[in-house]
Write a structure and sequence with these properties.
The complex is a heterodimer of chains A (208) and B (227).
Chain A: E1 7-16, E2 19-29, E3 34-38, H1 45-52, E4 60-65, E5 68-69, H2 70-73, H3 75-78, E6 81-84, H4 96-106, H5 114-120, H6 136-149, E7 154-158, H7 166-181, E8 185-189, E9 201-205
Parallel strand pairs in A: 3-8, 3-9, 6-7, 7-8
Antiparallel strand pairs in A: 1-2, 1-4, 4-5
Chain B: H1 3-23, H2 25-46, H3 50-73, H4 78-83, H5 85-90, H6 96-125, H7 130-158, H8 165-191, H9 197-226
């Protein structure tokens, strides 16, 4: 995992339907750090995450990864990030194992096998069940297991705890902690309190 | 990223789409059924005069193939868009255009190839002579991939819209017209016992052109649709 890369956002602005969601936003994520986005519904948290993924372009400002613009880096940036949006990004008519095999092939495969990743999110024993037959919380955990099968530095998570139970939240929190402890970075939105005690957390409130 | 892992991603994506199609057999059969029904209804509608059927046969089969393809186009990206896997494709560390090509190939194998396989039967039904049927097969072999490739660009542009179906037809049909003209006239010409090399060369040119350009255009269109 390359340790000396930094994500830096300068003067970001996002306009949606003639409303300025945010402007003049500056922040920087260093290895081992987490960025926690807060704000009311519709305050632009998801838009900001999509801009960080380079799916969406900012209306003004720039984001650099290791000093280079992410939209110019393209696939060279994508191999360092993993995104779990509010849509799970998994196929309901595939088994969890097939879903993870696809996710693994699309990025830079990590050392962890798909089986081991399922085990880590407590889906052991569900490898060959159609994802459609899993509960909403189990589907969410499968979506989060995608993070583990690729070797990505920056995890971009949009409401990762949706439909998870208390135990599930703890499992994911410990995965997030382990990721930053290894020098990974996080950009997270959440309505739940996120307990990342060992990680330096930077909070940005978009409604303020 | 080395080419090994790209080949792997291509193969896995192709296999994924084929697996999904196999688990949704009804959707797969729909375009084929449409193709067969439309073609076989024509003799009932216009009367079973062999000379007339032979004259309009190539046109009927090609128009039906084109509409069947149009019917199935949305499937290339729609469900991927809805469950978020399309975002994951765009965020892949591989070139999106290559991944798009895997999806288009899967679409052709699922919808184009069955049309191709059943078309000789429909040719016989419409009373096409043997040379006409051979040429029909060749034009469909060269032409149906063009339908999938060009269609993918249209779907990629409209996938973000709630009711993109109408716009999709308006976008894509004009692009299909040259293919329709050359393909139907090739079959006509062959049935009349004349050489069709020129027609087939033109259709091959369309195939090469769309094979090289449309994955790039599709990838760019997907970025616009999701952004």
């Amino acid at each position: 995992m390359p340790a000396n890369t930094t994500l830096e956002a300068r003067d970001l602005e996002c306009i949606r339907d003639d409303r300025t969601l945010f402007s003049g936003l500056n922040f920087c994520i260093e290895p081992g750090q987490a960025l926690l986005l807060e704000g009311r519904n519709g305050s632009g948290k998801t838009s900001l995450l999509r801009i960080l993924c380079s799916i969406r372009l900012p209306d003004a400002g720039s984001i650099t990864w290791g000093g280079r613009d992410i939209n110019r880096l393209g696939a060279d940036y994508h191999e360092h990030i993993a995104y779990v949006g509010h849509r799970d990004g998994i196929k309901l008519d595939l088994t969890p194992l097939e879903n993870l095999a696809m996710a693994r092939a699309l990025g830079k495969p990590s050392e962890l096998s798909a089986d081991a990743a399922l085990d880590k999110v407590d889906l052991f024993g569900f490898e060959d069940v159609l994802t459609r037959n899993l509960s909403a919380g189990q589907q969410r955990r499968l979506a989060l297991a995608r993070l583990l099968v690729t070797d990505s530095v920056l995890w971009i998570l949009d409401e990762p705890f949706t439909s998870l139970d208390v135990h599930g939240i703890q499992v994911i929190e410990s995965l997030l902690e382990a990721h930053t402890a290894r020098g990974g970075m996080l950009a997270v939105t959440s309505h739940h309190a996120v307990n990342l005690n060992a990680t330096p957390v930077q909070r940005i409130n978009l409604s303020a | 990223m080395n080419s090994d892992s790209l080949t792997r991603a291509f193969a896995l994506l192709l296999k994924r789409d084929l697996t999904l199609a196999a688990r949704h057999r009804a959707e797969m059969i729909n375009p084929l059924l449409f193709f067969v029904l439309v073609t076989s209804l024509f003799p009932l509608g216009v009367g079973a005069n062999p000379n007339m059927l032979q004259a309009i046969g190539p046109g009927i089969i090609w128009v039906a193939a084109l509409l069947a393809a149009l019917l199935s186009l949305e499937g290339i990206f729609r469900s991927d868009f809805e469950d978020g896997t399309l975002e994951q494709l765009l965020l892949s560390s591989h070139p999106v255009s290559v991944l798009v090509l895997a999806k288009v190939l899967a679409h052709w194998l699922i919808t184009g190839l069955p049309l191709l396989l059943i078309s000789p039967l429909l040719g016989v039904l419409l009373g096409l002579p043997a040379e006409g049927i051979t040429t029909l097969l060749i034009t469909l072999l060269l032409g149906t991939p063009v339908l999938s490739l060009l269609g993918a660009v249209g779907v990629a542009l409209t996938v973000g819209l709630r009711k993109g179906g109408m716009i999709l037809s308006l976008l894509v049909l004009p692009l299909y017209v040259p293919l329709l003209i050359f393909a139907a006239s090739a079959v006509d010409t062959a049935a009349a016992g004349l050489p069709v090399t020129a027609h087939l060369s033109l259709i091959s040119a369309l195939l090469v052109l769309s094979l090289s350009l449309s994955p790039l255009a599709t990838a760019a269109a997907l970025r616009i649709s999701l952004g």
